[in-house]
Amino acid sequence: TGYITIDEGFKNTGSTTSDITFLDGEEGILRYRGYSIEDLADKADFLEVAYLLIYGELPTAAEYDVFVAKITKHTMVNEDMRKIFDGFPVNAHPMGIMSALASAMSGFYPDSFDDKKPDNTELHIIRLLAKFPTLATWCYKKSQGHPINYPKNELDYCSNFLHMMFALPVENYKVDPKVSSALNKLLILHADHEQNCSTSTVRLVGSSKANIYSSISAGISALWGPLHGGANQEVIEMLEEIRNDGGDVQKYIDKAKDKNSGFRLFGFGHRVYKNFDPRAKIIKKAADDVLSLLGVNDPVLEIAKGLEEAALKDEYFVSRKLYPNVDFYSGIIYRALGIPTNMFTVMFAIGRLPGWIAQWLELRDQKQAIGRPRQIYTGPTIKDFVEKSKR
Ligand code: CMC
């Protein structure tokens, strides 16, 4: 009823009110529950930030300990999930596997999809946070032809992930605290970003009262796309290509400006940030710090800097307010931490999981109506049916 207005890509349509994340695109401000992203990335621990997003306030020391203990208890994954996982080909993309496994969890915890049963939502949330990194490391281990590692629960969240990724049975792998701390920062920077494509997907799916596992699985699928989280993989592939092509950044800038080329500068531009992406600022500095701390010399860092400098001088990018986004430098750090390119978007998903969960919970608490956009029909008017033999 009433007039329907089309807002393609929802550029000016708000889908909800929210108490979770504040974002000012003009000023480049990002805050979770009122706390600045700069402070959190510098001082907090990823699970503290997860708690903040999900429960609305930073945990006290006692609350934090209980939260961590609960997560630690659930890091193991049902061995039957392995059977599903084992059926994937060795070169399946980890994002496809993650989405499938997140959805498969609903089969293992069927009390997640019936509102009439006792409300075990908190337990499902803990399970998701706990098992997600474990599942992610399975994908990497499979790609290497290595046996999986079980979680080592005396380790913190990031270190446990790194242990499951990189420890081999034959060596005495020790997590480097510098690597763990860099990962902690990256996960915090990705933890929420208000109504982006994947979060809106989680909320839309959740609005039909689908269970939390299916809603998160849908979010993973949305994040996978190269215009969203998949951009972090595209950036490194693009930088590699530029390097192998002789390092001429201007050639790629010109290609990105040419609308017929079908090529965009990955890691550049943002729907909301029209000044700078505050996450990119922190990540750029972190890339310098982490690489020098670990003694890594990655030639693509220089290419990335050259590309950024040239783009920011170019009328095309300046007039459209296209700046580096969160995905531009993050891959360079992941790479320095030993994480392979096809796992970058999975790293984004591990970071974004608490945000998706918080937004799913908020949607439920707000008792929102099912999301059901309208359309303006532009197809043919009425047609008479013609028998197959007469068409
Ligand atoms: N390279 C070249 N031109 C671009 C780029 C780019 N990366 N981004 C936008 N433009 C141009 C676009 O062609 C358009 O030009 P015109 O006005 O002449 O038609 C103008 O800038 C506005 O772009 P838009 O596509 O209308 O903007 P949008 O808000 O719909 O899209 C975006 C935002 C992030 C999808 C887009 O900037 C893009 O495709 N960037 C590359 C992919 C990327 O880095 N994605 C990660 C986003 S940040 C975090 C995340 O979600 O993962």
TrEMBL record:
Residue spans crossing the bilayer: none
GO molecular-function term, one example from the UniProt record: citrate synthase activity
Pfam families named in the record: Citrate_synt
A Gene Ontology cellular-component term: cytoplasm
Active site per UniProt: H270, D327
Pathway entry: Carbohydrate metabolism; tricarboxylic acid cycle; isocitrate from oxaloacetate: step 1/2
Keyword terms: Acyltransferase, Transferase, Tricarboxylic acid cycle
PROSITE patterns in UniProt: CITRATE_SYNTHASE
One of the GO BP terms on file: tricarboxylic acid cycle
InterPro entries: Citrate_synth-like_lrg_a-sub (IPR016142), Citrate_synth-like_sm_a-sub (IPR016143), Citrate_synthase (IPR002020), Citrate_synthase_AS (IPR019810), Citrate_synthase_bac-typ (IPR024176), Citrate_synthase_sf (IPR036969), Citrate_synthase_typ-I (IPR010953)
Catalyses which reaction(s): oxaloacetate + acetyl-CoA + H2O = citrate + CoA + H(+)
The family this protein is said to belong to: Belongs to the citrate synthase family.
NCBIfam families for the chain: cit_synth_I, PRK05614.1
Protein name, UniProt field: Citrate synthase
Protein species of origin: Lacihabitans soyangensis
